[in-house]
Design a protein that fits this description.
By secondary structure, the chain is of the alpha+beta class. Helices cover 29% and strands 22% of the residues. Bound molecules: flavin-adenine dinucleotide (FAD). Residues 33, 68-77, 86, 105, 128-130, 133-134, 136-138, 140-141, 143-144, 154, 190-191, 194-195, 310, 321, 430, 464-465, 479 line the site of flavin-adenine dinucleotide (FAD).
Length: 479
């Protein structure tokens, strides 16, 4: 049955739009970030025009085939029968007069950074901080940028102006023609159709910023925890941003036991002199045993490309990400986060090779600038810091219940890191798992979102990741 339907699907497309398992292009187009999710479907289809995309979407929707929409695979999507790749959609244009960028949904943000440098010097879009992350997947789940503190999330109405989408019946439209649909696409997890293009606001922004990575030994953790908490209380400058992450796998270094050191990644759009002053990150450089790995002025593209060294993680590890939201950072937050990590290593030593704790220090505007809880499908409306937790290991030697171990450890993280009485019980919508209750994630927007899901996907065929119809997150979505 499936093989007959696969043949019918092939017959709708030209040869370059078909990628079989034995093709040299297959691995790049099918491997998910987390090996755990890999289902190695027999076929990847990559339509290169709206004409073939609408035929494919309609065919898949009316078939019994299990399919997944995929851009980069960073969200660890896979399927039993077919992957529908968006890589055939790569057009880019910048309109200086309206300050808008229109781009195909097949790009990753690294490619967009390059195109912005070339075609829109002096402007930036609010896009992800890691060059390999796909433009539409990240927009559909919220999406965070170095520019978010100033302008909000990628999916907010002031940043993501429009999405072109192919619906289940092959209809192609710009979503704001049906405003409820556009609303649902803003952080609602996708699964309403296949996005083929995005229109984004371009902001006049410095091309060159200061970025730095500085390293500290484990012995500096307590001191660092205190100064980061002071920074969070003191700073309201939206042109400053910071990540604090454990050393070891997170920084491409050898495992450092259960007591890893600390790395701080800084962003200061005012430039180097400001970054090194007390108005910027002067305090970071004063913490004991500071070692500058890399610090200086560079282009926004180069900053995002610093994450390139993690790209090789794709398809190497079993990996899961979860991101509880913290209402505040106190003097002990980092110490408790490192303890959570240490507990994970004690549960399974193999987690050392791919696990991270990463605090995304957020300014007020990152989550408040959409203007209210009902402005986007995922309600984000007050200051929150993102505690991004990754648990990863090589598949060899991992116990059969490794996923269960990881999920249990994630569920402990909120109360352990925030403190039991301060746990918000909130999670970033881009990193959800089966234990997340979608009614909690989407709050008062949930019923509207579910109704829209029924209207645009009555048979629940777009069902990977956030599965609104069944009110659950499917196990395949791991990051
Ligand atoms: C190591 C790591 C770092 C990350 N860093 C960032 C970051 O800096 N900022 C940030 O915002 N996020 C970040 N993310 C999270 C990222 O935004 C999500 O994983 C997102 O789902 C990736 O989208 P993708 O298109 O690249 O992935 P994919 O796996 O290709 O897709 C993920 C899901 O998005 C949907 N989707 C993708 N494209 C389309 C489309 N064209 N139409 C309809 N649905 C579509 C599909 O449902 C698919 O299941 C990171 C994730 C990881 C693992």
């Amino acid at each position: 049955m499936a093989s007959k339907q696969l043949d019918e699907l092939r017959s709708l497309l030209s040869d370059p739009e078909i990628i079989e398992r034995d093709s040299p292009r297959y691995s790049e187009q099918a491997t998910p970030w987390s090996l755990w999710a890999d289902q190695r479907p027999p076929l990847v289809v990559q339509p290169t025009s709206l004409g073939s995309m609408f035929k494919v979407v309609k065919f898949l929707y009316d078939s019994d085939l299990d399919f997944a929409i995929r851009n980069t695979g960073t969200g660890s999507v896979s399927a039993k029968n077919v992957i529908l790749s968006t890589h055939g959609f790569k057009d880019f244009s910048f309109d200086k007069e309206s300050k808008t960028v229109t781009l195909g949904s097949g790009y990753d943000w690294g490619a967009v950074d390059k195109l912005m440098e070339e075609h829109a010097p002096g402007y930036q879009v609010v896009g992800a901080r890691c060059s390999w992350v796909g433009v539409s997947g990240s927009s559909l789940v919220g999406g965070l940028s170095w520019l978010s503190h100033e302008y909000g999330m990628i999916s907010d109405p002031q940043n993501l102006l429009e999405m072109q989408i192919v619906l289940r019946d092959g209809r192609v439209l710009w979503a704001s023609e049906e405003p409820d649909l556009m609303w649902a696409l803003r952080g609602g997890g996708g699964n309403f159709g296949v996005v083929t293009a995005l229109k984004l606001r371009a902001r006049p922004y410095p091309t060159i910023v200061f970025a730095g990575i500085v390293l500290f030994p484990y012995s500096s953790l307590e001191e660092m925890s205190k100064v980061v908490s002071k920074m969070a209380a003191r700073t309201a400058d939206p042109r400053l941003a910071m990540h604090v992450v454990n050393r070891g796998a997170a920084f491409g270094e050898a495992p450092q036991g259960a007591k890893p050191g600390v790395a701080v990644m800084m962003w200061d759009a005012h430039g180097e002199a400001h970054a090194r002053s007390d108005d910027g990150f002067g305090w970071v450089f004063k913490v004991s045993d500071c070692h500058e790995l890399q610090a200086g002025e560079m282009s926004v593209r180069e900053v995002n490309a610093l994450a390139e060294s993690f790209r090789h993680w794709q398809g190497r590890n079993q990996f899961w990400l979860c991101a509880p939201l913290l209402a505040e950072i106190d003097d002990e937050t980092l110490v408790r986060a490192w303890k959570w990590w240490e507990d994970a290593i004690n549960l399974f030593e193999g987690f050392q090779v791919g696990s991270t704790v990463l605090l995304e220090f957020m300014q007020e505007g990152a989550m408040t600038s959409s203007g209210g809880r009902d402005k986007t499908a995922w309600p984000h409306y007050q200051r929150r810091h993102v505690m991004q937790l990754g648990l990863g290991c090589r598949p060899e030697g991992a116990p059969d219940n490794i996923r269960e171990v990881a999920m249990k450890q994630f569920q402990k993280a909120g109360p352990q890191i925030a403190g039991a009485d301060k746990d918000t019980k909130e999670f970033h919508a881009g990193f959800l798992h089966e234990f997340n209750d979608l009614r909690d994630i989407y709050g008062e927007n949930f019923d509207k979102l579910k109704k829209l899901k029924k209207r645009y996907d009555p048979n629940n065929k777009f069902n990977k990741g956030v599965n609104l119809a069944d009110e659950k997150v499917t196990a395949e979505m791991t990051a």
